Amino acid sequence: MLVKWITCQVTEENRASFSKAQEQWKSLSSCEGFHGQMGGWNACNLTEACIVALWEDKQSYHTFMNGYHDTIVEKNDQAKTYEKIEVKLVEVEERVKLLYTVGIVEGRQLFVPNTPLNLAFLATIKIRMESNWTVEGRA
User: Fold this and answer.
1) For a designed S-S bond to 6, which of 51, 86, 108, 132 qualifies (C-beta 3.0 to 4.6 A apart)?
2) Domain ranges of the chain
3) pTM surpassing 0.70?
4) Which tens digits make up the pLDDT trace of 82-119?
């Protein structure tokens, strides 16, 4: 399984535009190997958007990146809504079985795989979840 962690620095005036563009990633649900995506705003820094996505493997992720990804980006124009983006990819050797809570904000929980310490950075982040950013996968 492949975990993709995305953070974007968004100015206060672009938060609504970013959020609207993020909602347009719903079409990910039809991608082969896509398990799901969720995210929201960092509760300690409300100009930082945080998104976690789960893919079956590198192959399905790269197939998406080499094809459908750019179609979504061109359609939602999201690149104009943030100042900086960082992406981390972490391979997890076995399928997600155990979960732990990253943070609970406003009664919502963000779960990620209980994986080795290379995902430990997620354990300290509290997210104000945006339910409209959630995309359920087909895998």
Assistant:
1) 51
2) 2-136
3) yes
4) 999 999 998 876 554 334 334 444 444 444 444 443 45
